[in-house]
Design brief:
Elements lengths: L8 H11 L13 H43 L6 E8 L7 E8 L2 E2 L5 E4 L8 H21 L13 E4 L3 H13 L6 E6 L5 E6 L2 E4 L5 H34 L7 H11 L2 H6 L2 H5 L6 H12 L1
Parallel strand pairs: 1-5, 5-6
Antiparallel strand pairs: 1-2, 2-3, 2-4, 6-7, 7-8
Length: 299
């Protein structure tokens, strides 16, 4: 049932009938009664849904594409599609890690997120760690481009690099780009004394941002996401390090047995609660190894 007559009605009826497996489909335009009211109701419902969707899409566009346009305007850039934000995490003297989060058209592109385990820096040195992360990221990207790796992990370069910090972090990024002969705009996401986003540092100038603007909200989301991703990776490594350091101290327990124990028992408390007989039943264990694990936790 339709609200109005359409062209080539018979052709459409024939096609719909074929789609239904040969059962006849008839198109009707009711003129009165219950069926006419039903069609009017369906049309009104469709109009309401479309109106709501338009409003939702307009709000969403303001939060994403509109916010990106505001950022481009603030920085005097012609166009921004892809943004990459970087952060470093190091806590309690444990090894440092770096994070790279990617936003395209104002939305997170999580498949392009990358984690970096810092290799060349000992101790908490954010500047040196950031230099390593950026050097590895763009050196790898240049290599992929030379090899024409269209689907490489680092092939696509950003229109804007966002650093978690101000002048120092921005200068590190600019130095790396200069050494690699790359020309990509870099700005810092500056925080106030309460660790809340305050503004952008670009071309040696701090640019204030209206806290009620969509640009400010997007920058805050990006900064929080880069920090969250780095912290999450750091916690993951710390957890693995703590588990491994405990089990590695047990005589006769190597990488294979350690993995088997954690895969079966899932936690150190569960291993501690197991008996010698239970431990010895694991395929990779024997009675001597089981005795070592038991004694280690109960001595």
């Amino acid at each position: 049932m339709l609200p109005e007559e359409i062209e080539e009605q018979e052709l459409l009826e024939s096609w719909l009938s074929a789609k239904k497996g040969g059962q006849k489909v008839t198109i009707r335009v009711p003129k009165k009664g219950t069926k006419e009211k039903l069609v009017e109701l369906a049309e009104e419902n469709a109009r309401m849904v479309l109106s709501k969707d338009k409003e939702r899409l307009k709000r969403e566009e303001g939060r994403t594409i509109g916010a990106v346009k505001e950022i481009a305007s603030l920085l005097g850039l012609e166009k921004i599609v892809r943004m990459e934000a970087y952060d470093i995490s190091n806590t309690n003297g444990f090894e440092s890690v770096g994070s790279m989060v990617v936003y395209e058209k104002g939305k997170p592109k999580r498949n392009d997120y990358r984690k970096f385990k810092i290799k060349s820096v000992k101790g908490p040195d954010d500047y040196a760690s950031m230099r390593e992360v950026l050097t590895r990221r763009f050196t790898h990207g240049l290599k992929e481009r030379e090899e024409n790796a269209e689907a490489g992990k680092f092939t696509t370069f950003p229109d804007l690099i966002l650093m978690d910090g101000g002048r120092g972090q921005v200068n590190i990024a600019l130095q790396v780009l200069d050494e690699l002969k790359l020309n990509i705009p870099v700005c810092g996401m500056v925080k106030d004394d309460n660790h809340r986003t305050r503004g952008l540092y670009y071309n040696n100038v701090e640019i204030p941002i209206d806290r009620n603007s969509e640009a400010f909200k997007l920058i805050t989301r990006i900064q929080d996401e880069a920090h969250r991703f780095a912290i999450e990776f750091h916690r993951q490594l710390r957890g693995k390090g703590q588990v491994h350091s405990v089990l590695d101290d047990i005589e006769g327990i190597g990488p294979a047995r350690r993995k088997a124990l954690m895969r079966h028992y899932l936690s150190l408390d569960a291993i501690r609660s197991a008996t010698v007989e239970e431990l010895a039943q694991l395929p990779s264990m024997n009675e001597k190894a089981a005795e070592s694990v038991y004694q280690f936790f109960h001595d």
